[in-house]
Design a protein that fits this description.
337 residues, BirA Bifunctional Protein, domain 2, five-stranded antiparallel β-sheet, two-stranded antiparallel ribbon, 10 helices, globular
Length: 337
Amino acid sequence: MASYHFHISSVGRSAGRRATAAAAYRAGERLRDERTGLLYNHSRRKDVVHTEIFLPSHLGGAADFWAGSREKLWNTAERAEKRSDSRVAREYEVSLPHELNRTQQIELARALARELAERYKVAVDLAVHLPRPDGDARNFHAHLLTTTREVKPQRLGAKSGLDMQARERRKRELPSHREEYHTLRERWATLTNAALREANIDARVDHRSIAERGINREPMPHIPMASLKMEQRGMRSVVAERIREHYRQRVQARFERTAQAAPSSEASARPNVRDAGEQSKDVEETRRQAREAWRQLRARAAESQGEQRHPARELEGGGREREAVVSTHEHDDDLAL
């Protein structure tokens, strides 16, 4: 079975993130944030193999003059939000089957980008990445950075898609956020399997959980990217160690339950499902540990590296151009399969 990964996240100011920084990193380009004057330069990246901006077809090219420019698009998205805790962009991270060739992988990512642009009437900034040299050689993946607002000919409009308020979704008789999320996950599986089938590849993906598929085993643990980065740098990650230990305990508990239920064929045929309240506590604890790991990573990075700034350069108009250190938030977003 090919690898399935579909993750939705947001770029929010409450976490100190900027849409311009996220777009520059994912596209491997040099973008300036007009609100702050900061310059984000990732033009030296070698793993970005395809970038493209998709706009809703109903505009007929009316917004191309501003939304078709990566720098103008994301500066417009930043200016459209007034709150200090606003979500300025939404991101969809997907793994691309390594069984497909480069052209087929890009076309699969483009198919999802087009559907998101049409479904939510938003701009979609696509970036396809190759595996890192020091990572998993199968880790072909794509980042789809979308605006949280509908694209209009001259500007951005109201909140759309998953960023639309629940009350507005009910008013328009749209599915709930949870239902929308599951619909998107299923749609990505359908697109991926169609691409594999068209390429005459037997591998398939499945968006369902192992419990939904009737598989009687514990799901593999998810280690936060911040913890993985700490371990790669030779630092100990307490969070990663705890997650792995909890996983071993769950596997052992499942084994013991299965052994005890072995005399009853009826009981052994049923998958063991953990108490929902216990699962909820584990999820909340993992999130808390991930947040703590992220704070530790940022603190250690600041101590060991400090903020490196490029010297200011004279502009033609006699002003000063500020060169900024790139936000560390945008360095740890690639997938870890």
